[in-house]
Amino acid sequence: QVQLVESGGGLVQAGGSLMLSCAASRRTFSTYAMAWFRQAPGKEREFVAAISRGGSNTYYPDSVKGRFTISRGNAKNTVTLQMNSLKPEDTAVYYCAAGPIARQSPLPSDFGSWGQGTQVTVSS
């Protein structure tokens, strides 16, 4: 398992941008696929973005495609989520996750390590 710590959440107006960061504890960071999920009150945890171990493949659901970008820096053990053109429906707690494989539409159960989450609130 790897320890993950998210940062960068906050309050932003609709149409604005935020960048989330996730720092990983292990030197074997490059052996993990990484992902971001989010969970709004009363809703299930939802896939937001995923990136392969080497960073060459990325995956997004239609709800964020073209607005969110996931990237990773294996030398610094970090993964980031750049969020542009934010909408009120993007409001949620955002979680960083690490697992063996990145794919389209993964389930939370695909990932064994999770951060504590960071709140993102988009006002209308």
What does this structure look like?
The protein is mostly beta strands. It is built from no helices and 11 strands. It has strands at 4-7, 10-13, 18-24, 33-39, 46-51, 58-59, 68-73, 78-83, 92-99, 113-114, 118-123. The chain is globular.
Throw out a few tags for this protein.
124 residues; mainly beta; 7-stranded mixed beta sheet; 11 strands
Compile the SSE list and pairings.
Elements: E1 4-7, E2 10-13, E3 18-24, E4 33-39, E5 46-51, E6 58-59, E7 68-73, E8 78-83, E9 92-99, E10 113-114, E11 118-123
Parallel strand pairs: 2-11
Antiparallel strand pairs: 1-3, 3-8, 4-5, 4-9, 5-6, 7-8, 9-10, 9-11
Provide the helix percentage: under 10%
* Distinct helical segment count: 0
Sheet bearing the most strands, described? Answer: 7 strands, mixed
Compute the number of strand runs: 11
